[in-house]
Amino acid sequence: MSNSEHASRADGCCRLWPDVNTHFLSLKGLPPDAVPRTAAQQVLHPLLVGFDAIAGCELKEFYRFKMYLQRLPEAPVACPELIQVVAAFRCWVDFDYSGARALFIAHLQEYPGDVLTVFFVHMLDFCTGKTCDLVDVFEICDSSVDATHPLSSFYLGIKSFVLCERVEFEQARVLGLQAVAQRPDNIYAIHGVVHALHEQQQWAALCEFLEGCKDNWAFNPGMRMHIYWHLAIAYLMSSQYELSTATFREFYALKDFRYAKQDLDAVGFLWRLKLQNLEDRQFDELWQDLSILWSGSIGTSTSHFHNMHAAFAFAAADRPLLIDKLIAESDGFGIEPATQQVGVDVLNAIAFFARGAYAECYQILAASQSVWLRLGGSRAQRELLMKTMNMAQKMMPSHQPRVRLVNAL
């Protein structure tokens, strides 16, 4: 086998449909003209669609994807690059997350240049609160994904975000900027830079960066709302209140349709805003709408990170009974035991906050702070819990004991 042939084989799934890779890893979904022409592509196409769906952690999407996977034979095609990937997805939809991850890792050990599969593992880690663990994948893949690799920018973008979650903020920023320099429209690399700047509290630099490259992210269907969320927060933290709320209204208007499940960033911004002034009623009507929209997720999500946002919406709408129902329906199905415990603790804390029982809220959040990362999401998104805990502490009667805090998100 020649060196070029070996390199192609080492790229695994990435070599099966090169025209789709950059579009998909740019978080634009699948190109509308992406028609499978080979047996491998006929399997890969629904794999990508199914993966994209289950990353939302909705039970219905798990079962929809599982039905497709059940129809595949054990060896789906005469294509070795797909065998372990399909097996990994079968574990994932069976909620065997560790089994899925082990199969993805085994695949990458054989195909260390497969950036597409690196992204699969990364999103599995993100959903299960293990984002930082991806460093073991980098140890496998670094030597095979150098600057000449066609998907190098996307690999660096993923790496940037993971390093940021590992509190290596400056290195994350540098890698993210390298990735953006290679491919300016790589929104996940832009995302990595923004998270690093957020963690470094460089709000002016964050605004300048996003304003300077807006054409490269503001039209991306997969992530534009989230990047707008970062910009709105940066304006808020820069005391540019009017610009911040205007940016929020701009990104919330980008929902695909009214009932689209795209309300997480709206809650993430508005709850921050509410904690600055609990008496502010400017968005009360929207909070009522959000509480209705989030009520459909009760009992349907495998993510306590999503449940946390639902609970904040219920709290802001003064509907603590919906938080109680959310807790009652959170029986741990599809959720790892350690995550289930911290998730229910957090939901209980938010329920106490909604009822004005601030001491109880504070005590629960302070006790669980060191394991919040199990919920998934990012440090920047989990800041909602820190800010809620700080507000609960502020609202507590002065005689309540204070718990020594650990700086962990």
Automatic annotation (TrEMBL):
InterPro entries: TPR-like_helical_dom_sf (IPR011990), TTC38 (IPR033891). The keyword Repeat applies. The keyword Repeat applies. Keywords: Repeat, TPR repeat. This is Tetratricopeptide repeat protein 38. Belongs to the TTC38 family.
